[in-house]
Amino acid sequence: MKVEDATVITCSPGRNYVTLQLTGGGGTVGLGDATLNGRELAVVSYLQDHVLPTIIGRTATNIEELWQFLYRGSYWRGGPVTMTAIGAVDMALWDLKAKWLGVPLYELLGGRSRECLRAYGHAWGRDPAAAMQAADDMVAAGFSAVRVQCGLPSLPFAFGPAQGNDSSLPREEQWSTDEYLALIPGLFLSLRDRYGPQVSLLHDVHHRLTPTEAAWLGQRLEPARMYWMEDPVPAERQESYRAIRQRTTTPIAVGEVLNSVYDCQQLIEQELIDFIRMAPAHGGGLTALKKVAALAEVHHVQLACHGPSDLSPISLAAAIHCGTAVWNTAIQEYVPHPAESAAVFRTSHRLEKGYFVAGDTPGLGVEFNEKAAQRYPYKRAYLPVLRRPDGSVADW
Ligand code: GCO
Ligand code: MG
Q: Separation of 256 CA from ligand 2 center, angstroms?
């Protein structure tokens, strides 16, 4: 089967999504998610102007060969734009091949390692009382794992969830490490008291601390027995994680902004983290991610794919198929997509009592409605920018 046609569609049903459709012989269509939040059109151009003309007419079922062709053949490697583009092609090829063979995608990835995949829900509150209420709601909805985020009461936006397409220029938020560190340990100790050992508690630091601050926080969180502390510091310098690792037993999760095995090689091989959080879309696709997962398995590191609502339902389906098949998958992030997106993406996976069940329809099990997508044109949108009390830029 050859790749006969390839189209990229941008749409904004509640937030921006970029979808790649690859058509193979016989009219079978494979879908890939090419969404890179805030830099969507760079990936569109990379695909349309540089990648798609080179894959038309190639054998669609030789997925590894095509991955190597796009990765090594471009000479310029790595980075979020390149790897998201390769990730979208790779995801679409896996979808196409599984549909062509008439099997759900997890079958091609080794078959089921588990019946279903544990998910964690998100709880966010403006202050600790609201965050605890939101966590209660998640537990009541059946989640046995909840990631809890809390605003800083004295600041207007800090630590809120990323908004959708609400501004055509980056919104600026303020940040206070002192207020944050004063608040978080108490919140999680109260949550642990409230739930006992039954609920796994997660927290995203979102790259905002120094290694010393992160070690301090990790130590204070130890009595709360966290499931993980996410992205305590930026991971460009992987060695920084050693300083945190040596000083706390709070488990560490990293990876949503990483794009290749080289970006996390030291973190995994030197066992500086417990969970690797790369998403199929941003990590160069399932072909790349299964290799990362295999390396991680050797080093007691578990896979937990990034799954925010700024990745499309196609990405979530890919993560669920991957997590169903890959043995060392721990858990899957779940953030509901905007309501409008249901008209554009029809999915066959299910969320049942805090667990994802992969769909049994062939491929990824997602249908993309191009007509419906046209009703929601792309709108330029950005992630917020964060500033410290002195006005300098901080890591958002
Ligand atoms: C997460 C993330 C997201 C990111 C977002 C950036 O763990 O889900 O940190 O909320 O901020 O995906 O585009
Ligand atoms: Mg995160």
A: 6
